[in-house]
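Subject: sequence -> structure tokens, single chain

Hey, anyone have a minute? Need the predicted structure for the following. Not urgent.
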Amino acid sequence: MTGTGTQKAEAGATAPEGGWLRDQVCEGLRDRIITGRLKPGDRLVEREVAEDFGVSRVPVREAIRILIGEGFLQTVSQRRIVVREMTRQDVDNLFDMREALEVLAVRRASERATLTELDALARLLARARAATDSGGPEELSRANAAFHAHIVRLSRNELLVTALESLEGRLRWLFQQIDEPESLWEEHRLLYEAIAVGDADAAEDYALHHVRHYREVANRLLFDS
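Reply:
Had a minute. Here:
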């Protein structure tokens, strides 16, 4: 095998591991931002992040690029990257996307979900119930985001799935801010029941109300308005 061939083989062999390390760093940093351990304005230094996660700078650099794309980080100068503060416009943009895409996903899920898929959705609703009872904000945000993500998958529309997957981290961040966990779970229960009986019109109405209600809640909590 030529030298070039050997290099390509080695690169191919290490790529999955590199991707795994990148994903681990990305998820770790995302969690710290969502849970408030990293706050808006906090600076990220590649060398320090690499030492913290026990990796080289390459996966750190790749993870930072992903989080910039997701809107969690921003570059303020060539050598300074900080946690980005979510503005009211950011939040409104997120809810605009949810209103346009999630409501459609709920309708399609009502029309297309199988009994097996509905059982899985029921288990996610039960997980959210347990998290609501325990009061753990991190688990609650993960459980509620997982419930929404599963509904999107039930739509069987890959374009919807891809579009909303890119928002999943920001949805978890939103759920972390909510101060009405019981009300949130009750709305999810109604949404599940409409999907489970295949009532697409009712499910769509619940979804639209749900998104609009939590737009108001988010603006009240984050911007006092």
